[in-house]
Design brief:
Blueprint (H helix, E strand, L loop, with lengths): L1 H9 L48 H14 L17 E2 L34 E4 L10 E7 L4 E6 L7 E8 L14 H8 L12 H8 L3 E6 L4 E8 L3 H13 L8 H15 L3 H11 L15 H11 L3 H12 L5 E7 L3 H11 L17 H9 L10 E5 L6 E9 L10 H9 L7 H7 L3 E8 L11 E9 L1 H5 L1 H18 L3 H16 L6 H11 L23 H10 L6 E6 L48 E4 L5 E4 L11 E2 L6 E4 L2 H11 L11 H4 L34 H4 L18 E2 L1 H5 L3 E6 L7 E9 L8 H27 L2 E8 L2 E9 L3 H14 L3 H8 L2 H20 L4 H13 L6 H9 L3 H11 L4 E8 L3 H9 L11 H4 L10 E3 L6 E6 L8 E11 L4 H24 L5 E9 L2 E10 L4 H21 L2 H16 L5 H13 L7 H9 L4 H12 L8 E7 L7 H11 L4 E2 L3 H5 L3 E3 L4
Parallel strand pairs: 4-8, 9-13, 19-23, 25-29, 25-30
Antiparallel strand pairs: 1-6, 2-3, 3-4, 5-7, 5-8, 6-7, 9-17, 10-12, 10-13, 11-12, 14-15, 16-17, 18-19, 20-22, 20-23, 21-22, 24-31, 26-28, 26-29, 27-28
Helix pairs in contact: 1-2, 1-35, 3-6, 3-9, 5-10, 12-18, 23-24, 23-26, 23-28, 23-29, 26-28, 32-33, 32-36, 33-37, 34-36
């Protein structure tokens, strides 16, 4: 599963410097070493094989959510990198079915409708533009520019193997346009309400019902300056899907009978992020803007802003909603991007027909201008008053963390997209190679991470300003010396000003951008249409011909713009904040008791939480003392950490929306800091900064050879392959079931010459994408690992961190050249991943493996342990790992999910146990561990991409002999060794119950997961039967428990596949009822759901099966995604490289009875093989206590077995033998 996430991360479209805002994102084609996916507030239902819904878009999350969306008909995470101003995205797959069409919002008269955008209309004309596309892009494009201001980009794919179509509409208005102080959050509210039906399709569930039956879903998100709505659907059903989408913008009903529910949904979304430090800091940051400035808007919206404030002000919210729609949702502000299999002419006709009748622009509005809103924003100017700068705030966080942020407001940069001066600066300030700012801070033991740049969301860059942010993750030593860290940042800026803009640096950036553009990798259509629809908006000022190329376009060397930006980035113009638990930990925001007996509305952790980026994690803890927080220092000991420059004795100020506590600095302190930062340090940690901080070395990893290797002859390498079944058999039950690809793609094969030398090596030559990229991934395994030893487990994780740290400068240079190298700890040992443009891969592979082998050399270890700069860095890595363990269970959703895993996976360990074990680990322990482990590891290698078998043989022969199985073919043919991973067998008809208090004593939620364990099997049909069950259950479960019963914002389900053991889960998170009541509601739902399956029309069942088959057969879109699919087979020692074909064939045999059999045999109450585990995490402020819930669950399940620890459960447990 780890490598699946990694592979999806590597195939993502982000260019990253370790974190969001580290550098502006690319739109496609960048393979990176486990880049961290963008954060998004989009609601979604997601699944994975071993954990519930809290699985997340880091970019490893994006693809994971995307996969879930395809399989469940649920929304996926957005691929944007929004700040918290990018609102929680609405889960449109869960619309409730209204009892009636509903009353429409009262409103002023609708604006005049535009005539149909076609020649017959006579009013609206169209200009056709063909944008420049990548030489590697096989799609056809056409941009339609209508005279009424509306624009549409058409994408036609001729690849009949693709099964999905998609469309997105962006509106050039967002939360910046909310009426301040009157109904803040109305842009977000409109995003929700727009889905509540149209005049043509008045049933609010009609759109989602149609999409889900045809393998699709809809979703939307609101940012500060724009809003985006999008759909995905089976390719044959685009026509109606697009019309459903279009009608939302032509004649939306905005039903008032949906208003109350949607306001509460928005409030739930707000509460999901209320304890996210990044969201809290951003809203605090916005609150410091000029009075009346759009930045000050509270764009999330909640009950207080949308309901209470409007009532108090006498504002009719629904009339305000209609006014907002009428004012902003007009043709000149709307941009469409649609992806389909139809020829461009047919797509054009479809768009002209569906989008007939869009509201016209206001008479005074020029369709070619930026529009009155953007003009007003430009006139408003920068958000922060220059006279009030610099600004320093110390902020109390929710989690245990220490961060320094230095931000500068700069003029807008959208018009500079051809030169991108901000990218030049982000590239240098965020650099991690020798001479970089981060390298210097790491050597001093002050920081573990740094990111720099302008966020690409519309909060970070808009018509008013752009915000260039440098964020440093501090160690405890760094916190104590944070003014020195800030000084180092300023000294690096001064060095850049002194050296001046360097064209050679720019040319390196250009070379990498040109590589990415020339060999552009295909994107998921749903991601692509969102990207393009948003970038088409007038605010971004991109020429029509550049709309596809703009993210890669750096054609103008503009040193003056770079110098102008640097001139503004000085200490006296900085906005600085120090976010640290040294100032205490924030309390959970208090909420008023429900009035007049009204039950509290549901809230819950976002389904994305479990994979949420570290700073996004929602954690909270009550604090009696606020002067300091018990933290982890570099030696692994607990200590009370304080900021020596400040005492938190004074009462803090409080930001009103999130309740964030902060202390603004007095002028005297600011003057002292400015005076200090103007001097050149001659002693202390910064004494050598002037010589140590320098421009980076030239990048030796930038490729120059892009030749494609000759294809192997069929006789020499390929073989005839037949699909698992014939087309006749495949379609025997469902005549529209999608066919197998023809011809079938090749599969990895063993390398004969390498086998003779004792290597287990596989090779797959790319014939699909035909780009000069390759991937070389190594699985290094041994069976001499005791996964039940907690110390062993944490040492593996620690090794992975320090290996990455030693590789960091090399890895960073490689990333900037579109290559990647990294190691990853696994239960069997370690994986090493190397890939990207093939030219410099051998050099990178050699560097990565030499560094790994050095960890087994006693002499190297001796020298490193004597080097204080290295030991400081490694102890900082351990500090970060310890902090991660301590923060791990502060969210009930994460906590409950891990309780289930601890029950069935005995090799896992509670975070508290891992923290305790890691505290006792020294660097000497790590040295002994690695020197013992490395000689035991044996390699299995997979080489894919632009290489012949002969090329791959050369690579394998150059690998360190220490990693091969032996020196003969017999040794290579032996089964790779790795430890067994037993899976606990739950008791039949005796539910296993494990409830715990959540460590967050202030949390109001209770999280529950019900897990039904099925059988251990290698057959495909049982697994796809659960996939179908999930597809059928997902929407009615959410509709019943979340929307109608309002149990909680999170209500989802999904199949589980744990080391060959199938399972199925339902999970909910609620602040309204306790876990036992949730169980009762779920059991009742399951009984009703069975009736629903019995009564399901045959044609609806067929649509679901066919859609599932299409998802199974959807081809991979990048080399990395192919590699991760193949490599997972090596990891699990299954070697079924065409698993997707077998699962598709099994899907084609599924019937209604198969679904009923699963329910009747394993899941429903009284089922003969029902093996149920019920786990829950109960927040300190939840509706019921742990004691009362344990009493209630025993009454509800008289035969249940209650356990209080993993150890207690495992003492009597039996296990499946899951040895592959």
């Amino acid at each position: 599963q780890v490598v699946r996430l990694l592979g999806r991360a590597l195939s993502s479209s982000i260019i990253v410097i370790r974190s969001k805002r580290c550098m502006p994102k690319k739109k496609a084609g960048k393979a990176k070493a486990a880049p961290e996916p963008a954060k998004s507030k989009e609601s979604k239902k997601t699944k994975e094989t071993t954990q519930p819904a809290q699985t997340k878009r880091k970019k490893a999350k994006q693809a994971q959510a995307d996969e879930a969306a395809k399989k469940q008909g649920a929304p996926k995470a957005s691929k944007k990198e929004p700040t918290a101003k990018a609102k929680a995205k609405k889960d449109q797959s869960t619309s409730t079915k209204p009892s009636s069409a509903g009353e429409q919002a009262s409103a002023p008269k609708r604006p005049k409708m535009a005539t149909a955008p076609d020649a017959a209309a006579g009013k609206v004309t169209v200009e056709v533009v063909t944008p420049e596309k990548s030489p590697n892009d096989k799609n056809d494009y056409r941009l339609l520019v209508f005279s009424n201001g509306f624009e549409a980009l058409l994408i036609s794919s001729s690849d009949d193997k693709k099964n999905k179509a998609a469309a997105a509409v962006s509106a050039g208005v967002g939360s910046f346009s909310d009426p301040q102080g009157r109904c803040e959050g109305v842009a977000h509210y409109l995003e929700h309400m727009l889905f509540m039906g149209s005049e043509k399709y008045p049933d609010e569930a009609e759109m989602e019902d149609f999409l889900s039956k045809h393998g699709g879903y809809s979703n939307a998100f609101t940012e500060a300056a724009h809003t985006c709505y999008y759909i995905e659907i089976n390719k044959t059903e685009l026509h109606k899907g697009l019309d459903l989408l279009a009608q939302l913008f032509i004649h939306p009903l905005l039903k008032t009978d949906s208003a109350e529910r949607e306001i509460h949904a928005i409030d739930s979304e707000f509460r999901l992020t209320q304890n996210s430090d990044s969201s809290r800091v951003e809203q605090l940051f916005a609150s410091q803007a000029k009075e009346g400035h759009p930045f000050r808007t509270f764009g999330w919206g909640n009950l207080k802003s949308l309901q209470e404030a409007t009532k108090k002000a006498g504002v009719d919210l629904n009339a305000e909603l209609r006014t907002f729609y009428d004012k902003y949702y007009r043709a000149p502000r709307l941009r469409l991007c649609v992806f389909g299999i139809e020829p461009l002419d047919d797509l054009e006709k479809l768009v002209r027909t569906s989008f007939h009748g869009l509201p016209e622009r206001a008479p005074e509005e020029d369709p070619k201008s930026l529009g009155p809103q953007e003009a007003m924003f430009a006139e408003v100017g920068a958000p922060f008053e220059a006279a009030k700068l610099p600004m320093l705030m110390r902020i109390r966080p929710v989690k245990d963390t220490h961060k320094l942020s230095m931000c500068w407001q700069l003029p807008p940069v959208q018009h500079l997209y051809k030169s991108k001066p901000d990218r030049y600066l982000a590239h240098l300030i965020g650099h991690e190679g020798a001479g970089s700012l981060l390298s210097f801070l790491k050597q001093a033991g002050f920081a573990t991470r740094l990111c720099a740049g302008i966020s690409e969301d519309s909060f970070g860059t808009n018509s008013m300003a752009c915000l260039f942010d440098v964020e440093v993750t501090l160690t405890t030593a760094g916190l104590k010396s944070w003014p020195d860290v800030a000084h180092a940042v300023l000294l690096y800026m001064e060095m850049l000003r002194r050296e001046g803009p360097q064209e050679w640096v720019y040319q390196e950036v250009v070379a990498v951008e040109q590589m990415g553009w020339k060999f552009l990798q295909e994107k998921n259509p749903t991601d692509q249409v969102q990207d393009i629809a948003c970038s088409m908006l007038p605010v971004y000022q991109i020429d029509h011909k550049d709309i596809l190329k703009a993210p890669y376009l750096v054609s103008e060397w503009n040193p003056d713009a770079i110098s102008a930006m640097l001139k503004e980035m000085t200490a006296d113009k900085a906005l600085i904040n120090v976010l640290s638990s040294a100032y205490g930990r924030a309390k959970v925001a208090e909420e008023p008791e429900d009035e007049e007996g009204e039950e509290e509305k549901a809230e819950g952790d976002d389904e994305e939480d479990e994979c949420e980026e570290e700073e996004e994690e929602e954690e909270s803890e009550e604090e009696e003392e606020h002067e300091g927080d018990e933290c982890v220092d570099a030696d692994g000991k607990k200590e009370t950490v304080k900021d020596p420059t400040f005492s938190a004795e004074a009462e803090p100020l409080v930001e009103p929306n999130f309740g964030t506590e902060y202390w603004p600095a007095e002028k005297k302190e600011l003057d002292e800091l400015l005076a200090r930062w103007k001097t050149q340090p001659t002693s202390g940690p910064l004494a050598t900064a002037k010589t140590d901080l320098r421009l980076p070395d030239r990048n030796i990893y930038v490729a120059t050879d892009f030749a494609l290797r000759p294809k192997a002859t069929k006789e020499a390498w390929e073989e005839e392959r037949k699909p698992p079944v014939t087309l006749e058999v495949l379609r025997s039950l469902y005549p529209t079931f999608p066919p197998f690809p023809n011809p079938l793609p090749g599969l990895p094969k063993r390398l004969p010459a390498a086998t003779e030398l004792g290597w287990r090596a596989w090779h797959w030559q790319d014939t699909l994408f035909e780009t000069p990229r390759s991937e070389i991934w190594m699985k290094l395994s041994t069976d001499d690992i005791d996964q039940r030893d907690t110390k062993y487990t944490v040492l593996q994780s620690f090794l992975s961190l320090v290996y990455s740290d030693m590789l960091n400068e090399t890895a960073y240079l490689a990333e900037q050249a579109s290559l990647h190298v990294r190691g990853s700890s696994q239960h069997y040992g370690l994986d090493v991943y190397v890939g990207g443009f093939h030219h410099k891969l051998p050099l990178l592979l050699d560097t990565g493996l030499k560094e790994l082998l050095s960890f087994g050399d006693p002499d190297v270890w001796k020298n490193r342990l004597e080097d204080p700069s290295i030991t400081a860095r490694w102890l900082s890595q351990r500090e970060a790992l310890l902090r991660g363990y301590r923060n791990a269970w502060l969210r009930p959703g994460d906590h409950a999910a891990e309780l289930r895993r601890l029950l069935i996976m005995p090799q896992r360990h509670p975070p508290a146990d891992k923290a305790e074990a890691l505290e006792a680990v020294s660097l000497e322990d790590l040295a002994k561990f690695t020197q013992d482990l490395l000689p035991k590891l044996r390699a299995e290698v997979l080489i894919s991409g632009n290489s012949t078998a002969e090329d791959a043989e050369v690579v394998v022969k150059g690998l360190p002999a220490a990693f091969r199985e032996g020196d003969s073919a017999k040794a290579a043919d032996s089964r790779p060794k790795q430890p067994k991973l037993p899976v606990s067998i739950l008791q039949t008809k005796t539910p296993t119950v494990w409830f715990e208090d959540c460590p967050d004593a202030g949390n109001r939620n209770a999280a529950l997961e019900m897990y039904w364990q099925l059988e251990h099997t290698s057959e495909h049909k049982p697994k796809v039967a659960l996939d179908l069950l999930e597809a059928l259950m997902c929407e009615p479960l959410f509709d019943t428990l979340r929307t109608k019963q309002q149990l909680g914002y999170v209500a989802s389900c999904g199949m589980r596949h744990t080391q060959g053991v199938n399972g199925y889960s339902v999970w909910l998170l609620s602040s309204k009822v306790g876990p036992t009541e949730i169980c009762k509601r779920v059991e009742a739902f399951l009984k009703d759901f069975r009736k629903r399956i019995v009564e399901l029309p045959e044609e609806d069942l067929q649509r679901h099966v066919v859609a599932l088959g299409g998802q199974k057969l959807e081809p991979e879109r990048t080399l990395v995604s192919v590699q991760e699919t193949f490599f997972s087979e090596l990891q699990e020692r299954q070697y079924c490289f065409d698993r997707y074909l077998h699962e598709a064939a099994a899907t084609a045999t599924l019937t209604r009875q198969d679904v009923l059999d699963v329910l009747d045999t394993y899941i429903l109450p009284g089922a003969p093989k029902r093996r149920l585990a019920i786990v829950a995490s109960i927040g300190g402020k939840a509706k019921s206590s742990l004691a009362s819930e344990l009493k209630a669950i025993k009454k509800a399940y008289p035969k249940c077995k209650v356990v209080s620890s993993q150890k207690e459960f495992l003492q009597s447990a039996k296990f499946y033998d899951t040895t592959a």
